[in-house]
Write a structure and sequence with these properties.
mainly alpha, Serine Threonine Protein Phosphatase 5, Tetratricopeptide repeat, two-stranded antiparallel sheet, 23 helices, 2 strands
Length: about 500
């Protein structure tokens, strides 16, 4: 707008000057002895204007030439800064893309040539991050040391270095060192939100649940943390605080919670556990019921079902009201079955457990059914459920045995008298029941069926062995057939299975 205004003003002045000169035909006399110059006024004005332009141009050129060295230095500085920014940009792009070797090369060139402290610090931090992601922690620490040296006493750059260093230390699970760097930068009223999140992360690794709870509240008030994440942190930290405080500090922690936080599963479980341990079963039931009314958590249901027979009727009635809205919940059905068994309602307990097992095969349900059928004398069904429970845990393969294993032959076992050495040729009146069936083969079963009973006297020197149907030999061959398990209470270094020699 100003340019248009001055252009218009110049045109107006030119028009006025032309009109003035057109009406005045006077002359201008210039006397400079020995010269005498007479000019028209129009030519004189034009010459003055031309002289002004020439003088102005000469002065401008002279000034431009005088400023040449400074201008050249500025040009070199600008070119250098442009190259620095290009290297810094390329280095950070490579870091973000995960091209860490290329990033380190670009950043090393930048650190070797730049003279600006801020760019040197930024390049060193980017190089440290690239080395950190490659697991080269020695090179990372060297880059951080260069960054601190470049920052000198610049407070803001030192804060940046501490923040980046703490974040990388937390990645290494070194929260104590990270906390030492972060504490000078952050307090409860600070606006450094990223530092606050790093403090939260450090305290989580250190399991400082009180600080985790407070920092989560701070971040939640500022709206920089997701509500779901905040609820999870509040739930886990509060549950740990309740367990640590016990019944004495329960009220102080509980009163600080919101109503929707008190029904979170971990918090309700911790509150119920504390009151159950103190013998306050009614209060424990109220905590569990309040949470279960919001969501049927399997852990809460399992704890709710664990009670003395005096509380079974009340809890059973409450659980049956939940069953109306959740008839196909296997955890609820299992809890009802447990309560029925505690209250000795065998038929109804079996009904609930079987229905739960139809929906989901569960180790605990199989174990409960096995105990129930064992108590009712239904051994076959009890064994079946115990086998299935063992199969779920991976303890054993669920297979029904094809035939029972025969009893081991213990007739040739050595006889011990008061911890003394075995006496050859003598048999105990009551044979010990101890032998290994590890060598059992299908051929042994045929011999075991025709083997003499325990009341039949057998010549130990000629009695056949059950194992592999071979006869024992004196000396070294006899050791092969005895069980290798040590006998309790006997010093095996003084015991020999061979016959004594006179």
């Amino acid at each position: 707008m100003k340019a248009w205004f001055w252009t218009l003003l110049v045109f107006v002045a030119a028009v006025l000057l032309a009109l003035f000169l057109n009406d005045h035909n006077g002359n201008v006399l210039v006397i400079a002895p020995p010269w005498r110059v007479e000019l028209s006024i129009t030519l004189a004005v034009l010459l003055l204007i031309l002289l002004f332009v020439v003088v102005h141009g000469v002065l401008r050129v002279t000034y431009w030439l005088a400023q040449g060295p400074g201008r050249f230095r500025a040009w070199r500085l600008e070119r250098s800064e442009k190259r620095d920014y290009e290297l810094l940009e390329a280095g950070w792009i490579n870091v973000l893309e995960g091209r860490y070797p290329e990033a380190e090369k670009e950043l090393a060139r930048l650190m070797g040539r730049t003279k600006a402290p801020a760019r040197k610090v930024l390049a060193a931090l980017a190089s440290a991050r690239a080395a950190h992601h490659q697991g080269e922690f020695t090179r990372r620490d060297q880059a951080l040391a260069m960054a601190r040296e470049g920052a000198a006493t610049e407070v803001r750059l030192l804060e940046v270095i501490s923040t980046v260093s703490a974040e990388m230390l937390l990645d290494q699970n070194r929260p104590d060192e990270a906390l030492a760097l972060l504490k000078p930068l952050q307090d409860a009223s600070s606006r450094h939100l990223h530092t606050t999140r790093l403090l939260l992360r450090a305290h989580r690794q250190l399991r400082n649940h009180d600080q985790v709870y407070e920092l989560t509240r701070v971040l939640l008030r500022r709206g920089v943390i997701d509500d779901t994440e905040a609820r999870n942190l509040v739930e886990t930290s509060t549950a740990a605080r309740l367990h640590a405080a016990g019944l004495e500090g329960f009220k102080a922690i509980w009163s600080d919670l919101k109503s929707d936080e008190r029904v979170l599963p971990d918090i309700a479980l911790a509150a119920a556990s504390i009151h159950t341990a103190a013998g306050k079963h009614e209060e424990a039931a109220r905590f569990l019921e309040a949470s279960l009314s919001q969501r049927l958590d399997p852990r809460l249901l399992a704890m709710y079902a664990q009670c003395s027979p005096d509380w079974v009727d009340r809890r059973l009635a409450k659980a049956e009201t939940w069953l109306k809205n959740h008839p196909e919940d296997p955890a609820l059905l299992a809890a009802l079955g447990t309560l029925c068994l505690t209250g000795q309602l065998w038929g109804q307990g079996e009904h609930y457990l079987l229905k739960s097992m139809e929906i989901r095969s569960d180790l605990r349900v199989h174990a409960l059914l096995g105990n129930l059928y064992d108590g009712l004398g239904r051994t076959t069904e009890a064994l079946q459920h115990w086998r299935q429970a063992a199969g779920i845990t991976g303890a054993m393969t669920v297979t029904a045995p094809a035939r029972p294993l025969p009893a081991a032959d213990t007739r040739s076992d050595p006889h011990m008298i008061d911890g003394a050495q075995p006496v050859a040729g003598k048999q105990s009146a009551a044979l010990p029941v101890a032998a290994s069936a590890a060598d059992f083969t299908p051929e042994d079963l045929q011999f075991a069926e025709t083997a003499p009973g325990p009341d039949t006297r057998v010549d130990t020197d000629s009695a056949p062995y059950v194992s592999r149907g071979r006869e024992p030999s004196r000396g070294a061959d006899l050791d092969e057939y005895f069980d290798s398990a040590p006998i309790p209470g006997i010093d095996l270094s003084r015991t020999s299975d061979r016959a004594r020699r006179d």
